[in-house]
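Hello,

Our lab assistant flagged a job as stuck in the queue for most of the afternoon. It eventually completed. Since we weren't sure the result was trustworthy after the delay, we are filing this so someone can double-check. Below is the sequence as submitted and the structure that was eventually returned. Let us know if re-running is recommended.
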Amino acid sequence: MQALEPLFFKPELVVGNPARSQALIQPRTDMQRRIAMLGWALTFLVIALIAAALGFGGVAGAAAGIAKIIFFIFLVLLVVSLVMHFVRGTAP
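-- returned structure --
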């Protein structure tokens, strides 16, 4: 559970005792820093693997195609809204 705690903040040192607020920053041991760094490395590894699976699997191409369709739909809606604004003279 120590690896899940923030790196420097120790709430038990501050809560209920304002005089101990000077002890807010506590240096971590070398092993705790290594465990935290290993956790970040594994997190980014999982993110990279998911991105690679989505990028190499054809999902990226499908998403780009959908984005183009949505872009043109909103472009048409913008033009229709502007035409209606100038014809009616009201806010779109």
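-- support follow-up --
The delay was a queue issue, not a problem with the job. The result is valid. The mean pLDDT is 74. The first helix runs from residue 30 to 56.
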